[in-house]
Design a protein that fits this description.
- The chain has one domain: 2-Layer Sandwich (Nucleotidyltransferase, domain 5), CATH 3.30.420.60.
- It is 29% helix and 35% strand.
- It is an alpha+beta fold.
Length: 79
Amino acid sequence: MIYYVGIDISKFKHDFCIISIAGEVIVENSSFENNKKEFQSFLNQLKPYDKAQSRIAFEATGHYSSNLESFLNNQEYYL
């Protein structure tokens, strides 16, 4: 099954949700702070879902999203 992860990027924290391809809300309105420790916490929430079946998207916000993008790419999640 394919899962969509939508992330709203901001300066201090990021909000996200996870929805299945069938439209089922898996994780509703959760957030994590914009730092490596919280990125790891977010990653733990993604672990139950196959990387190959996960689609992650967020807005291009320049430097506010660059650390998260790099972190996810290093974890072999591609955006």
